[in-house]
Amino acid sequence: MAEYTIHLEALEVSMGLGIHDHERAAPQRVMLHVAMDCAYPETPEDRIDAVVDYDFLREGIRALTEARHFELQETLCDEVARLAMRDPRVTGVRVRSMKLDIYPDARVGCEIVRRR
């Protein structure tokens, strides 16, 4: 068994996220970090089709964040984790979201871990 962790770090999106009126009025900047634990029966060959391709995750997150307004970061993280776990080779995922502009002196976020 060969195990790897694939990272998608610091993906910044502009999206609808939050419960407050000012958060509903306009999109806000959100940064997403995703780590996918992947398992392969053996060390993969040097071909993209032999491993989990992170392009599907990046494209899927962009589509997800453009399609709807999320009330909670927890819900956003859950949806991103579900997306990552669609590939059966992904055995676990860690998703972190950070609202970048809520406070002038801090970022606020959520992190979840999901395992098969």
Count of all domains:
1
Structural class, from helix and strand content?
A: alpha+beta
List the total number of helices: 3
- The share of residues in extended strands comes to 35-45%
CATH architectural arrangement: 2-Layer Sandwich
* Gap from first CA to last CA: 16 Å
CATH superfamily descriptor: GTP cyclohydrolase I, C-terminal domain/NADPH-dependent 7-cyano-7-deazaguanine reductase, N-terminal domain
CATH class: Alpha Beta
Low-pLDDT stretches = none
* Rounded Rg: 15 Å
The largest sheet is: 4 strands, antiparallel
Number of strands: 4
User: Strand sequence of the main sheet, in spatial order?
Assistant: 1-2-3-4
> What level of helicity do the residues show?
25-40%
Q: Taking all residues together, what is the mean pLDDT?
A: 96
CATH topology heading = GTP Cyclohydrolase I, domain 2
List SSEs in N-to-C order.
EHEHHEE
Based on CA inertia axes, which overall geometry fits?
elongated
Description:
With 116 residues, this protein is of the alpha+beta class. The protein has a single domain (2-115), classed as GTP Cyclohydrolase I, domain 2, CATH 3.30.1130. Helices cover 26% and strands 39% of the residues. It contains 3 helices and 4 strands; from the N terminus they run E-H-E-H-H-E-E. It has helices at residues 21-25, 55-67, 73-84; strands at residues 2-15, 28-40, 90-99, 108-115. Strands 1-2-3-4 form a 4-stranded antiparallel beta sheet, covered by helices on one side. The longest helix is centred in the middle third of the chain and has 13 residues, at 55-67. The protein starts with a strand and ends with a strand.
